[in-house]
Every structure is written in C-alpha cells, then in structure tokens.
Amino acid sequence: MRTPELKRGGVLEPAGDLRDGTAPTVSRRGFLKLGLTLAGVVGFLGADGRMPPPAPHRTGRANAHVSPAVLELNDGWEYGRLEEPGLWPYRGPSRYEEAVLPHTVVRLSWCDWRPERWQHLWVYRREVIADGNALAGRVFVEFAGILTGALLYVNGRFAGRHLGGYVPFEREITRFLRPGKNELAVVVDARWGQNVPPDRPRPYGPASIDYWQPGGIYREAYLRVYPQTFLAYPFARPADVLDPARRRLEVECLIDSARRTPSPVHVRAELLQGGSVISESTVRLPGLEPGRRRVHLTLASLGGVKLWDVRSPNLYDVALSLILAGRVVHRLQTRTGFREARFTREGFFLNGRRLKLFGLNRHQFYPYVGGAMPARVQRRDAEILKRELNCNMVRCSHYPQSEAFLDACDELGLMVWEEAPGWDYIGDASWRGYVLRDVRRMILRDRNHPSIVIWGTRLNETRNDPALYRRTREIARDLDGSRPTTGAVKRAPEESGGIKESRKGREEDPYSTRSFAEDVFSFNDYTRKYVRSRTGNFRLPVLRPPRVDMPYLVSEAIGAIVGPHFYRRIDTGRVQQEQAILHAAVHDRAASDERYCGLLAWSAFDYPSGHGYSFRGVKWTGVCDVFRVPKPGAAFYRAQVDPSVRPVIEPAFYWDFGPYAPPGGPGRKSTIWSNCERLEVFVGGRHFASLLPDRADFPHLEYPPFVVDLTVDGSGYPELRIDGYVRGRRVITRRFSSDPSGDRLLLKLDDDRLLADGSDMTRAYFQVVDRYGAPRYRSSGRVYLHLSGPALLVGDNPFDLGANGGTGAVWIRSKKGASGRVRLVARCPLLGSSSASLYVLPAG
Ligand code: GAL
Predict the structure, then answer these.
(1) 71, 299, 476, 607: least CB-packed within 10 angstroms?
(2) 396-408 burial by CB neighbour count: b if 16+ within 10 A, else e?
(3) Is the pTM here over 0.90, yes or no?
(4) Ligand 1 atom 6, closest CA
(5) Atom 4, ligand 1: which residue's CA is nearest?
C-alpha cells in the first residue's frame, strides 16, 4: 500500500482518500472496553476446521449468509467528530461518545433539520479481540449502510474505502488482524456533494435533491468468520413456476477459495420447509485453485410446493453446504418463494392471475434518527403498508432500503420495486461507475427476495443516457435475468416527442423517453389536468393514457400536485379530506383500463426534505405523517379491504365544531371511506342519512367513498354515529364525539416487548382524540414524557403537539444487557396523562 504524500503543513485529507483509494499506514494504540471476542466466534471452526450446524438467525436477516459465524457488530462503538480532519489518523477526535448501531451522528428533532450539523467527518471506533484460532479463518466486516463515505482502518492501517450510502460496504480484514486486541475504526464522511449517487457536486447544496440524508453508520454492521474456502452470493431462481411438472429451482453461488483445495469438493443444495428437506442436489467438483468459481445446481420435483402470493406468501429456505473431504466446512442459507410476476401490455399478472398493482412510494427516513432505525421499526413500515393501507406493492424510492423491510415484504406478501440510488441527476464518468456498482450490489444483495418483482435500473427522473442504462440493464440480466427492469420518467413520450421548445429554440429534450429501452415504462404522472366528477361533487385529476407499445405502470402520482398544499394536520379540513379523494381518483383511473399495470402513488409517509415545497424541513405528501400515523388522506387506502377481513369506517373529516373548525361542521361534501355496502348515519341520536357508495364518481374502485352533506349546527355538541351494513347485516358501528370535554391523550406502543441488545426500538405514538378514539382537529399543547425502566427515550420531550396538529411519536430504545419493565407516561396539562408499558427481554 502506498503512503500518500503529506500535503502542505503535514495535512492529510481523508476525503481525498475516499476517491483515490490510498491512505496512510500508521499504527495506533489499542484502547477501549472489551468488545466482541473473535475467539468465541472462531471456536466454531474447531481445531479440525469442522463445522457445526448453522448458527441461528441472530442477525434477523432472512436473506443473508448464515455462515458458521455471523455476529452483529452493533454495540460497543464510540464516535466523535474529527475537528481537525487533516490530521487523521495521527490525531483523532478529542471527545468520544458511546454509539450503538444503527446510528446517526447527530440527534435530530422530527422537523427543521439543519444539514450543516451532520456535514463533517466523524470517527467511529471499536475493539475486537481475536485469538490465534481466529486467524485460521477469513474474517470479513460488513457495514450495511453508511452515509456517505467511509474509510476503514484496522489497527491504524487503512483497510478499505467505500462511497455511497445505500449498498453494503464489505471488506476482508484477515490480514490486518493480530492476536489479542484489535481496533476497528471508520472515518465517516457525512458531507454533502460527494461524487456518488444521489449526490451532485457543489455548488448544488443538499436541498437540491428531495430528501435529507443525515450521516452515520446508519445500518447494522456484521462480522463474519469463514473458512479458507467458503460459499458466497447464493442465488435461488425459481423457474417454470406455473408448471408443476417442470417447476424447479436454479441455484447458483460462488466458491471463494484462498488456497488450493484438493478434490473432492462437493456443494449440496437443499430446499427446506420447516426444517425438512423437500428436494436436494449435490454437485462434485475437481479440486479448486485459489480464486472464485461459480457453481450451479438444479432442484427439481417441486410439484408440491405452494406458490408465493400476495394473499399467502409461502416461503422456503434454501441451504447450501460446502463439503471438503466429506466434511461440511461452510453452510449458508437464503430464502425463496415461488411466484411468476409478469408485466405485459395488457396489465400485470401474478401467478397467471391478473392483479392491479396498488401501492405507494416509501422513503426510509424517520424522525429523530434519520435512516438509523433497527429491523423491528423497518418491518413495521411494511406492516403499515400491507395491513393498514392495504397496498399490494411498494416502491422503494429512491434507493435500496433496509433488508429487514424487504424480509417483512416477503413475509407479508407485499410486492416491491427496488431501485438504485439517484434523483434527477447524472454525473461524470466516475459517478456513473458508482451507478453500475450500485445496481450490481443491489441485485446481489436482494435477488432472493420473492417480493421484489422489478428492478429500477434507470435512476429516478433522470435524463436519458442510453449507454449507461444499457449497461445497468445488462448487469440486471446477468445477475438475475428473472425480473424486468424499469425506471421512473417524468415526460411521457408524446409530451416531448424528443424535441423541446426553449428560449434557445427547438432542441433535443434530454428527458425524451422515445428511446426508453427498459422492459416496463414507468411514468411519474403529475399531470395537472382535472375533470368534474359525474355528480359534480369533485374535481378529479386525470392520468395520461397508458402507452400501448409497452407494459405501463404509474410510478408516482398526486404528491402535492395541487400545491403548495402540504397535507398537514394543521391545514384546513377541506384540504386534508381532498388528499384522500385525489389518491382515490388516480387509483380509480388506473383500475379503469387493463393496460395500466397499476399505480404507486406519492407517498406513503411524510419525509424530511429541504427541497421545493417543503415546510419546516418536511415534505407533507404522505398519507401518513413522518411518525407513520395515518392522516385523513389515508382513509381511502384503509377502506380498500374485504369487509370479511376487517370492516372499516373512516371519515376523511374531523367531527369537530371547535375553534378552528369551519362554521357548520365538516360541510356539504363530506366523505366517509368504508368497505360496507350501506351506511346509516345518525347525528345527535337521530337518523340523519342512509348512504350508498359513490359509484358514479369512482366506478372502478372496489370500495368508493360515501358522500354526505354534514352541514349541521354543532352548538349542542351532537354525536355522530355511523353503522355499516354488509348483506343486510350490521358489521360495524363507529361513534364520534364533538364534545371536547371527553377529549383525552391516546398513547400507544407498537410492541409490548423489546430485546435488550441496545438497538431494538419501538414507537410510542400519542394523539389527542375524542372519547371514542377519533383524532381531534388541530390540537395544540405540549406533551411531557416520562420513561422509567431499562430503556431510553428517542425523541422530543416535551413534544409540541400543535406543530403536527395533535399527533406525535417518540421511540423507545433498549439498553444493552438491561432487561425489565419499562413504563412511559405521557402528560398533557389540559388532557391529563396516559401510560403504557412493555418488557425488555434479555437478548439471548
Ligand atoms: C417527484 C419525484 C419524487 C418527489 C416528488 C415530490 O417528481 O420523483 O422523488 O420528489 O416529485 O412530491
């Protein structure tokens, strides 16, 4: 390794090293508490290199390597800001604080983020201890996500660099380790404008793209110990899924061999269900030379397997074993599901059945911690999308998202579009090189997820770059080949015709989509055209007609098209109610024509942003807020479920006659979203209206809204009662109180238990509600939180309810090794207090 020259005054610039791949070699003193003991890990290997059965899923990653030893490396870190960047690694931060991964370098509020707070260089360091035995194996460290650049040092020696926040950074560190104490250190470059997607170089600032990206090691880290020869990059590709006689699993992986390995070498693949082997196959190889080699096996006789579907997401495990001289030396496991997903010019088909894609876009950023939420919280987003918003698909806009989120999508039957990082910009040759790297790493990481049905190999709303996108498609074909490719564009072909009129005259439109070469044409349809609905009640947005020459999907719609409306709880009731109508209208259009494969609207959740129509550093386009609590705009989604699963009545208005409410209450065209066939409405105890769904305005929705004139005199605080009927039977009743004297503060925890691993978290959300639990309009005041027991509160305390219209949340985080009962009390001076508790269990 070359030692870089000292710059003027002996200053080294680590950020430069991120780009040129060189770094200083300096030894540093060892320090710190006892961390993870590699000796314990490598004890697995045994003196004779023999492997025990695979380790249990400690990592919670269903599609990861389950190698002889995969250890989480999340706790025991400390971090500090590198005040004198140029002197690293001669001089580090003067002060370190403890850090547990996932981690963001600054504590944030839920809004008003200031990027200059995180835009620095930071150092994370940690000790690992290796005994001599550890060094008999091959040791890899993996960081699942670091925003945005990273330099890895082991014992002060440069061990690797990585640029880009959304794909894993993995390095073999065997040769840097020595027996006993070792120091891992990561210099994290959290500054904006690095030459990697989605960033764009200065002078553009961080608000030039649509989402803030707070820095840190914001995903999990792992340490793996492999034998000298091991298996990597498993891929189990189901083939001929719909033909039970020919159905099979094409399995491949790489053998990575550090040394010559004598014959015989066997690789065995097994398809497992609940631990029993359904099918197996073994391949015999001649001895191996050092290097990598691809192995391929076929598992057949799979007529009896159950398909993966949105309703019954059946999953299977695939175990691969490497057998040297009759002994299993490495075993890894991944997950698979058998399904056929086809995008055609006549629509989308799952397992041969037509299915309209119905969903939303999701950003991964959260209040307080940026992207740094652990698996449990990531999984919760998938649950909200599938179980509360009834989506069958989500678009991971605009980067590969957490593996825990994708695991949950597999398990819940939520289909996924995953795409490489990028937003409306293509950079220079080096930047484009990272696009290729990102596509490759995304597919290698995630190709075993049955939920993923399409790859975004074209970056969101970028100009056309035929050479770049030909290469990204080739990578997808080479590494997967079973999924189509796409990319969201912002100009329909007929819109530009390839030629743009500008002040300079007629010129080639760089966003022209005439030469769109991906398999599925995906359009971000923010067409600002409206029509009066048939009843005259609504102004409804229209969609562009589908392209007839290609499979066609609407990848975004609505957002804040009637902007600058923000869809905040502090906006007028009319605006909030309209969000549901607009979303319903575009889904209705998409359902009207079989050639639309479906529609993924913008967006599931509000997200932190300094771009365009943001307010207080938040984009308010979500049908749920940043805390993941549904807004009135979500009422449409919440009702789109069979009433036998869950009868729903969700008004998109507030039953409120308080100081902020318009006179006369919710008003003439109030909408109630329900999956019932008929609603009976009672006001003040008296029958007020019988309602049928508005099929005239929304003829293609399974569950259209019910429209009612609710202009009433609210002075006596009348109660609203709605009864829902299906096939003549009352299946649900909901009540709403306009009397504020019964208002209270609702407090709810998503989980009743956490693990004492120091990373695990759960949400505690609070909302001002009426006596029946319905949200009150524009409530204000402060919530004071008090947590007792072995856990930490992550969030604003006190919390200003008025800023988010009466709703908020904090998260509860476990402490490493501390178990017991945790109690949270939320107190609001005007409403009293509420409490909730959970147990933190030993992490095992
Ligand atoms: C779209 C873009 C999204 C988001 C949205 C704003 O054009 O693709 O990422 O920025 O606008 O509402």
Answers:
(1) 71
(2) bbbbbbbbbbbbb
(3) yes
(4) 559
(5) 210
